[in-house]
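Private note to self, pasted from the team thread so I don't lose it. C-alpha cells:
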C-alpha cells in the first residue's frame, strides 16, 4: 500500500532536511520525499500546516507491566505514547517481576505485539532483582531483545558492582542508562533541598547527590569504555559533568525531561504531590543550565520519565506520596512551547533530541525519513493551542503537574511501520 502525506513541512534532522513537500511511503517503508506536491498513492492525506518528522522515541518510560497494571499497562501506555506523537517507547525494568531475565523480556515483546500502538523496547535491569550486587545475565537479555540496561529506580551504590556491570555492558555493546543518586545523601528526602523545602518542613534531596553519582559513573565509563547514558538530568552540576565527558570524547550521553526546564521546586508549594518526583524539581538556576545544555548540544536527548501512579498513591501526605508524573501526552507540546517558541531550540533541534538522537544512542534503525527506513512517522500541528486536562488523557493515571497549562503543539497522528495510528478520528 502506498501512502502519501501531502503538503506538510518535512523535517528530518538525520539529513538536515527541512522543506514543504510530500512524504511517500510504500509497504511500510519510506520511499521518498517529493518537493512538488504531486505524488499519488492509495491514500493521500493532506497535512498542510503540520510538521512531518521521524517518529518520536522516548528512551525512558514506565509502563508498569507486568505487576502494576492498575497504574498503567502496555496497551494504555502505548495509547498515551501514540497520542503524544511517539512511535517507540523504552520501558524501564522496575516491574514485578523486574526485567532481569529473558522470560520477562519475551513477555513484554509478546504483549506489545498483541496490544501496543507504538513499538515497545524493553530495557533490562543491571542486577538481579534490581539494586542488588548480583549482575543480570546481560548476554541472554540482549539475545531476548533488550535494547539497553539500566539501574533506574534502584541506583547502584556499590562502585565495584557498577564497574563490573559497565565492563559487562561494554563487552556486549549495550548502553547503560543510570539514575544518578548518592543515596547516603538523600535518605528520607522528598523534594529539592533548599528554601522551599525548609519553609514547608520537608526533608530535602540535595543537588550534589546527583552530581557526585554522575561524576562517579562518568569516571567508570572512562575506565571501562562502557556507553553510559545519564537519565533525567535535573541539576546544573550534572550538565557540566556531561559537558566535561563530551570534551574528553568519552562514550557518554544524557537526557533531561520537560519538567526540569518548565518547573522549579516552587511547584511543590501547598504540598502538591503531583510535583513530587525523583530527581526532584530544582531551581531556576538549574532550569537555565538545562536549557543551555539542550541548546549547545551537551544534553543529547529529551525523554519523559513517564511514571504513572494511581490516585490513592498521590492523594496522601507529601512524604508518603510516590515519586513521579506522567508525561507522554505533554512532552512534545512542552518542548514546542517552552523551547521552540521561546527560541531555545529550532524545530529540527527539538526533533533531533526527541527522535534522531535517541535512535542513535540505542542503535535503532529509526529516527530518520531516509529512503528504505521503516515508516515510523509523527505528524503534529505546532500551532494548535490546547489546555492540559488530565481527565481526557489516555494514560490510566492522571498524575500531572501541568493540569490547566496552556500549550502549543498537538499530535495529529502517527504512522507505525506505515500503519496509520489516528486517535483523533471518530
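Design output:
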Amino acid at each position: 500500500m502506498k501512502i502519501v502525506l501531502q503538503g506538510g513541512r518535512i523535517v528530518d534532522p538525520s539529513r538536515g532536511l527541512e522543506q514543504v513537500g510530500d512524504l511517500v511511503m510504500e509497504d511500510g517503508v519510506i520511499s521518498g520525499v517529493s518537493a512538488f506536491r504531486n505524488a499519488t498513492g492509495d491514500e493521500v492525506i493532506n497535512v498542510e500546516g503540520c510538521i512531518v518528522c521521524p517518529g518520536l522515541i522516548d528512551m525512558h518510560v514506565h509502563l508498569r507491566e507486568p505487576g502494576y497494571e492498575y497504574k498503567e499497562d502496555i496497551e494504555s501506555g502505548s495509547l498515551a505514547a501514540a497520542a503524544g506523537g511517539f512511535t517507540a517507547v523504552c520501558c524501564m525494568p522496575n516491574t514485578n517481576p523486574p526485567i532481569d531475565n529473558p522470560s520477562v523480556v519475551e513477555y513484554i515483546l509478546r504483549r506489545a505485539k498483541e496490544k501496543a500502538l507504538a513499538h515497545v523496547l524493553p530495557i533490562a535491569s543491571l542486577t538481579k532483582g534490581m539494586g542488588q550486587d548480583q549482575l543480570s545475565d546481560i548476554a541472554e537479555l540482549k539475545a531476548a531483545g533488550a535494547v539497553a540496561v539500566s539501574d533506574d529506580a534502584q541506583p547502584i551504590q556499590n562502585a565495584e558492582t557498577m564497574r563490573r556491570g559497565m565492563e559487562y555492558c561494554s563487552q556486549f555493546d549495550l548502553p547503560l542508562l543510570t539514575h544518578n543518586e548518592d543515596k547516603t545523601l538523600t535518605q528520607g528526602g522528598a523534594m529539592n533541598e533548599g528554601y522551599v523545602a525548609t519553609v514547608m518542613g520537608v526533608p530535602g534531596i540535595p543537588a550534589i547527590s546527583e552530581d557526585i553519582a554522575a561524576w562517579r559513573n562518568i569516571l567508570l565509563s572512562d575506565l571501562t569504555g562502557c556507553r553510559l547514558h545519564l537519565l533525567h538530568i535535573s541539576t546544573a552540576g550534572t550538565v557540566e559533568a556531561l559537558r566535561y565527558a563530551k570534551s574528553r570524547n568519552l562514550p557518554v550521553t544524557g537526557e533531561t525531561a520537560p519538567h526540569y526546564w518548565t518547573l522549579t521546586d516552587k511547584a511543590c508549594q501547598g504540598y502538591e504531590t503531583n510535583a513530587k518526583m525523583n530527581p526532584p524539581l530544582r531551581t531556576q538556576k538549574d532550569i537555565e543550565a538545562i536549557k543551555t545544555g539542550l541548546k549547545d548540544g551537551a544534553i543529547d536527548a529529551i525523554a519523559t520519565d513517564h511514571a504513572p501512579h494511581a490516585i490513592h498513591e498521590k492523594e496522601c501526605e507529601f512524604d508518603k506520596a510516590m515519586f513521579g508524573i506522567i508525561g507522554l501526552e505533554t512532552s512534545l507540546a512542552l518542548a514546542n512551547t517552552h523551547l521552540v517558541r521561546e527560541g531555545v531550540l529550532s524545530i529540527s533541534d527539538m526533533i533531533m533530541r526527541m527522535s534522531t538522537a535517541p535512535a542513535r544512542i540505542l542503535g535503532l534503525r529509526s529516527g530518520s525519513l531516509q529512503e528504505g527506513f521503516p515508516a515510523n512517522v509523527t505528524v503534529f500541528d505546532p500551532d494548535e493551542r490546547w489546555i492540559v486536562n488530565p481527565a481526557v488523557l489516555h494514560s490510566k493515571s492522571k498524575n500531572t503537574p501541568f493540569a490547566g497549562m496552556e500549550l502549543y503543539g498537538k499530535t495529529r497522528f502517527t504512522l507505525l511501520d506505515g500503519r496509520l495510528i489516528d486517535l483523533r478520528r471518530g
